[in-house]
Amino acid sequence: MPDAIPIIGGTGALGYGLALRWALAGRAVVLGSRDEKRAAEAAKKLSDAVPDAEIEGMSNTEAAKQVSIVILTLPFRAQSENLTNLKDSLESGQLLVDCTVPLAAAVSGKATRTLGVWQGSAAQQAQEMVPDGVTVGAAFHTVGAPELADRGSILDEDVLICGERKADKAKVAALVEAIPGLRAVNAGPLEMARIVEQLTPLLISINVRYKVHAGIRVTGLPDADHWE
Amino acid sequence: MPDAIPIIGGTGALGYGLALRWALAGRAVVLGSRDEKRAAEAAKKLSDAVPDAEIEGMSNTEAAKQVSIVILTLPFRAQSENLTNLKDSLESGQLLVDCTVPLAAAVSGKATRTLGVWQGSAAQQAQEMVPDGVTVGAAFHTVGAPELADRGSILDEDVLICGERKADKAKVAALVEAIPGLRAVNAGPLEMARIVEQLTPLLISINVRYKVHAGIRVTGLPDADHWE
User: Fold this and answer.
1) How far is it, in rounded angstroms, from Cα B27 to Cα B83?
2) Complex-level ipTM
3) B47 touching A, CB under 8 A?
4) CB of B176 within 8 Å of any CB in chain A?
5) What backbone phi and psi angles, to 5 degrees, belong to B23?
6) What residues in B contact A217, CB-CB < 8 Å?
7) Do residues A184 and A159 touch, judged by C-beta distance below 8 A?
8) pLDDT digits (tens, 9 = 90+) for B127-184
9) Which residues, at least 6 apart from A110, have a Cβ–Cβ distance to it below 8 Å?
10) Which of B113, B213, B218 sits opposite A216 (nearest CB)?
């Protein structure tokens, strides 16, 4: 499946939610997990949910091989270990889309607080850890896993994308906008992930107060497509 | 003018923009400046722009006295000095609304980057510096000064409010929603200002890319008023 979207951590809530939406949009999806058996189970569950879709489950290391874009949806606690494990799978020319948020929950702190990451953000940590020639983008921090997983839930929000090159971000934007109701916004270079990753705990704080699943919308943007 | 809204730093771009919008909404406004003469000049300019409005200019220290809510719109570089100067003007029971954003521009860095503030955020620095019994809220970080100052510009965005007590935040929300097109969102306790203050450089980054004046909207909130 050369055009399949491989999701590292695809058995987690965010990964599975994105996989469901991409499957519903007619995209082939590969669900990766450290545990091949869990990956196969999640693939079976997703296939049952979207019978027409092309779905495979495999190990993370297999899922990341020989594809142009890899989606990384992991809890912060597991990000570093997984990137180490992926060193032999990733190769120059690939684009890794990091969705990690360094919530303090990773060390039994609050989900409305974050940990300071030495490199500045989880995405910048990923950039430091990937093999030479692999570029990293950051996206999908503010889309709630429960809304993604609930196919009846109508999405209506933005996804902020950080990365060094506009051409890379345009590829991520195409994946974002393959999901109905999501709009891709260019938030700037990868270092802006320091801020964009913080939107998750901000939304969690708002969710607690309003008992909702909030998202982010940037106002004042032109209607025209800025990704061309 | 007991119901007037005093704006410390009211001759700056954000302060003047807010003053214009409140004046247009029929609110009395006091423009504060370190320099009384500049305050008077700004008040004259605002009076010319909104002839029916009640507007006064005075020193920051006078403007902050004997009012229940004080708005602080200062560049980060000037925040600490001004709070020191206000120590004899502020008194227990007052609510200070801090709008400061610790942009790296304060030390000739980029406006898309921020400085680390020891207390966590500019608002928390303000909370540490005000006299006992003065509470601090944080708001108005994401509303662009140029849009506020352009009375023909139609606002359509949210203002995220941080603070310890909902009753205090409700007072700030009333000021926010006195300006047509702005909606107040409860973002949580004052510590969330660490994140909300970062939205300014994020929007600056987006503005540069899209050549717009972007704002923030939180999606998924209920229509009902949550401030009662």
Assistant:
1) 25
2) 0.91
3) no
4) no
5) -60, -45
6) 216-219
7) yes
8) 999 999 999 999 999 999 999 999 999 999 999 999 999 999 999 999 999 999 999 9
9) A104, A201
10) B218
